[in-house]
Prior knowledge:
This protein has 14 helices and 18 strands. The chain is α+β, with helices and mostly antiparallel strands. It is globular, with a radius of gyration of 21 Å.
Amino acid sequence: MESNIVKARGPIVWMLAIACAFAGVWWIERETGKELVEKTQGPGAQSAPARAPIASSTDLPPEPAPRPLSEEEKQWARTAWAYFEKNFDNNTGLVRSVETFAGATMWDTASYLLALIAAHDLGLIEKRTFDIRTSKALVSLERLPLYDGKLPNKSYDVTNLAMTDYEGKPSPGGIGWSAIDIGRLLVPLNVLAWRHPTHTPAARAVIARWDTAQLARQGQMFGMQVGGPGGPQAVQEGRVGYEQYAARGFTLMGLDVSAAADWRPHLQEVPVQGVNVCADARDPQRFGAQNFVVSEPYVLEGLEFGWTGTSRECAWRAYKAQEARSRATGVPTAVTEDHVDRPPYFVYNSVWSAGRPWATVTEKGQDVAALRTLSVKAAFAWHALLRTPYTESLVRKVAPLHDPARGWYAGLYEEGGQPNRALTANTNAVVLESLAYTARGRLLRWREPSTPKKP
């Protein structure tokens, strides 16, 4: 008996750490719902100027109750899972980020693990298949060569685990790491450790190799940027929305990301379609990073963690602006970051970016307005979270955009009305996450919802 306790000590400590981290998540939920005019206390108070409070909307819908999926929704889930069946690499247990493209970032890999969890929750795969695939993926994640021996590189070849650049070309030294992507990867790793104890030791082993001290300093998240003048540089990562979402993942690990989790210092309200949308006040020209307002971080936080007071308000405003645009123009609108099936292959369809509403731009802010799309994943996610007549119409609009044997396409181009036929892990993972949310509620919760009593 004593030897069994010793063997279990690592998983037990891991579970206790997660329990403590959940207390941290609760704190964030409480604190970020407070008035945004509250000043930061302590020596750094001057760096976080007081801002006007963000008013609470009176028409916020309640969190929907879980319900069984319809037969049509079950088929939609099977279609999404088809992507992961087709793009699975049996040697490494990982999945391509885009059909026929062997590269994947940590964000893409997190999407696959979350899709795997959703497929299991929805009964698309048996437990044995889930365990085999999870074990194989975690073994590969533990074997990944790390950038500078510290943290996961920004991109890998899923067929051989070699570090690559974003174009999939070999990069033996790596191209740095992304704190935002790693923050997302921490979500499924913690879910596996918390809900599937069989995989706790393997999930723990993945993170045990990381030098997590490099990720968070003075409450901020830091990535590593390579290729600029002066060599590799640690840079603050994250803008409003993405920053707070990734901070939730780091908080699960007990890392101090209090500054990143705080909405107050950089939040501004910008008018879009008669709605005061939450945006990041940092100037891209001065700070070197774009401030996209898109659906992505808001819907992921809602599906996985549940919204905090402020994120719920900001999510609702981002959604309302999209609904208002559709009502004003007659063009169905659900915008977010997305792959596209033509150059430059990845764009940000934004509610607002760098001073402009409805900007469709590249990561560097270059205008590509002709590539604005109605996003499949945004449509499914907003409908799962809100279930309004408008979100129902969005899902009906995107419902034909799939190949049952290959998965869901990324979206529908506004200009010309043709499908955006990019097939990606991220789109299909969010579809699965959305349908799993519909069936069982948010991914991380204090307890499972009680089963309603029969009348």
